[in-house]
């Protein structure tokens, strides 16, 4: 089973018309799972 999702973070700071700063960050998270085969003892 594979699960994948993304996150986007953005921020802005400063005083309008004087000095502004902004930053963006993108993250992608991927999870891979393997489940063991379960055999019944019958």
Automatic annotation (TrEMBL):
Name the record gives this protein: Trypsin-co-occurring domain-containing protein
Protein species of origin: Coleofasciculus chthonoplastes PCC 7420
Domain of life of the native organism: Bacteria
Record domain Trypsin-co-occurring: where: 2-35
Pfam families recorded: Trypco1
UniProt xrefs under NCBIfam families: CU044_2847_fam (NF041216)
